[in-house]
TrEMBL record:
The keyword Secreted does not apply. One of its GO terms (cellular component) is plasma membrane. The chain crosses the membrane at residues 14-33, 45-67, 73-98, 216-237. Belongs to the tetraspanin (TM4SF) family. Keywords: Cell membrane, Disulfide bond, Glycoprotein, Membrane, Transmembrane, Transmembrane helix. This is Tetraspanin.
């Protein structure tokens, strides 16, 4: 590997190490995606492996391409970021145009995870966090927990959690400093009119549909920030590629 330095053209060390630093930050952002647990029909281990492969590939191409001034790696990195950017844009547009389809997929996702609630601790944490943060219970209401064998109200169930809901569905008691994980036991045996005294009765789909309009500026701001970060990475990669090509062109002359 040869490095060319001439007075009329040279590779900018500023752009080189800025792109290297950018990759470290971008790598950290992608690593947060591994915290997402099971999606509908996808094993969490497979998801983590897929994200890990993307992280390693982009990180390797960006960091090594910048430090070694390798045009092929930099072009690959730039093209991958452009592809991710347009995929995100396409997903956002399609989600807006096909809201009913998105709502149905989220319902399937939530119901599938309700069935597997006790099978995976990470899955429990995901559902509990979602229900507590949005003060909701189930996809469309507490009755959705009949889908889970442990919370089902049928006579065939001998679970202690029968006709109950997870503790994350419970209305919090300010006087309690310790979380009562049994607060949802037997709550659905009572009259439905009394449920709202003990648990959240709103479904999480309705809660999220109400949350989005109230926080549209935050969502838009996050999307714009991520987009600008990606555009900045594309700019750095293209600038560094131009510098390297200019140096090589000067060398040939």
């Amino acid at each position: 590997m040869h490095y060319y330095r001439y007075s009329n053209a040279e590779v900018s060390c500023w752009y080189k190490y800025l792109l290297f630093s950018y990759n470290i930050v971008f790598w950290g952002v992608l690593s947060d995606l591994t915290k997402v647990t099971r999606l509908h029909g996808i094993d969490p281990v497979v998801l983590v492996l897929m994200v890990g492969v993307v992280m390693f590939t982009l990180g390797f191409a960006g960091c090594v391409g910048a430090l070694r001034e390798n045009i092929c790696l930099l072009k690959f990195f730039c093209g991958a970021i452009v592809l991710i950017f347009f995929l995100e844009l396409a997903v956002a547009v399609l989600a807006f145009l096909f809201q009913d389809w998105v709502r149905d997929r989220f319902r399937e996702f939530f119901e599938s995870n309700i069935r597997s609630y006790r099978d995976d601790i990470d899955l429990q944490n995901l559902i509990d966090s979602l229900q507590k943060a949005n003060q909701c219970c189930g996809a469309y209401g507490p009755e959705d927990w009949d889908l889970n064998v442990y919370f089902n109200c049928s006579g065939a169930s001998y679970s202690r959690e029968k006709c109950g809901v997870p503790f994350s569905c419970c209305v919090p008691d300010p006087a309690q400093k310790v979380v009562n994980t049994q607060c949802g036991y037997d709550v659905r045996i009572q009259l439905k009119s009394k449920w709202d005294e003990f648990i959240f009765t709103k479904g999480c789909i309705q809660a999220l549909e109400g949350w989005l309009p109230r926080n549209i500026y935050i969502v838009a701001g996050v999307f714009i920030a991520i987009s600008l970060l990606q555009i900045f990475g594309i700019f750095l990669a293209r600038t560094l590629i131009s510098d390297i090509e200019a140096v090589k062109a000067g060398h040939h002359f």
